[in-house]
Each structure stands twice: as C-alpha cells, then as structure tokens.
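Methods — Computational structure assignment.
A single polypeptide chain was analysed. Its primary sequence is given first, followed by the predicted tertiary structure written as structure tokens.
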Amino acid sequence: LDPLAASGLLVDGFDARPAALLPYNPPYYPELLMREGFEQRGQWRAYALDLGTAASLRAAGRPTWSIRVLGREDWPALADPILDLYRQVTDDLGAWQTVVALLTGGTNPRFSLEAQLAIRWLQPRALIALAWEAGEPIGAVLGLPDNSRGLRRANGRLLPFGWLPYRMAVRRTRRLRVLPAAVAAAQQEGRVEQALYGALAEAAAAAGFDIAIVGPLETEETTTSAQAMNALGARPLQTYQMCEKYY
C-alpha cells in the first residue's frame, strides 16, 4: 500500500493512457522476466471511475461516523492523524510521510527542488476524504490531479522552462489520481471504505474532474477495495504483476 512504490509490471491494459504513480512498461517485459527465471507473485489493479455516472456509495443504515471532504487549506493540522491511519495498514511509511509532508507544507531533503515543486503545484486541486467517529479520524483517502500529461509536456524537467507547461496541464486536467484508502482496523468490514471513495468521487465531480484513476488495489474480488470499486461502477483499467527471483 505504498503509493510511490512500483506495483509490479504492467501485464494488462497497455492501450490505456498512463497515469501518475502507476508503473508502465512495454508489453514484452513480463515474458522477458519469465524467461530469466522470475516467478509471479501478487497482482494489483487500477480502476477507472467515470465521475459523471458513478453510483452512490453512501452507506446503508444510520452509521455512527461522518465523512468530510477537505481541501488544501484544511490539511496542515491533519498530517499526524492521516499518518496514524496509514501506520495501521502498512509497515513502510516512507512514501506516505513524503506525500503528506509535501502536501501539508513540509519539505523532504531527499527530494529535489523539481520534485517538491511538482507536488506543491498539485496542492490547490487536491482533495482528501476523512471519516470521523467520536471526534477521531477512522479512515482517509487522498486524490491528486493526474500530472502525467504535465510531466510529458515538460519533457520530464520542470527547470528551467518546463514548469509552465507542467503547471498549465495540472490546472486543466480532468483526471484525478486516487490513492488507496486507509481505514482503521476496527472498521475493516468495508462500509467506511466504500463511503470514503463515494464521497471523494462526488466532491471530485463537483470540482470539475471527469474521471478518477484509483489504485493500485489488490485484485481479489473479496477485498473491501474491490467491492467498493464494483459498487461504485468502476471498471478495471490496468493489471500489474509482481515478479521475484531468488539467487
């Protein structure tokens, strides 16, 4: 559940337009690795969600929690609660700490100036949905403007002059990159996760986004993430295969 770590090799969905923070490779790579003795492990999937026709994911019944979708100005005080949620679902907080720090105004010395600028220019259009119960956050999901087209137009370099086409593309993009949700262990039955994705989808549509690219998520249909995507009407976009080789 590391949004900046590779989720394996792309094995299905080569015709789909690449999205930020998701791997891409030529179609012959998987076969090449199999020939070299690599073995297949877990699979991950990205979903495409049409925000104009998405089904509602509001939880049935009368939940004891509430959800708020927040913009950039509300984030600085939420960095620690968000990280606490992700600490419950992953042992590797490195990437999440970097994303949260940069989005809430912090810096990371491991990142170049270009990388920090690239993230900071995403801030004004970024959204986060938070679920609360008894005054405590119990779930979060983060959405960022997809900057893949901006990076391509900047030819991979923001400085000295690539920042202008990059920034314009980020401001105009109608694609939202939604990272995997983090839900407190006591709320793992799925209702909170479904409601989080649904609330973020509604807010993104109101903010002018047309489509959300969600993932990477596990492919098993029994997971709460897959169930949330199916309930929302999302379609599988790309599949990624982890490969390992022991020497």
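Note: DSSP finds eight helices and nine strands in the chain.
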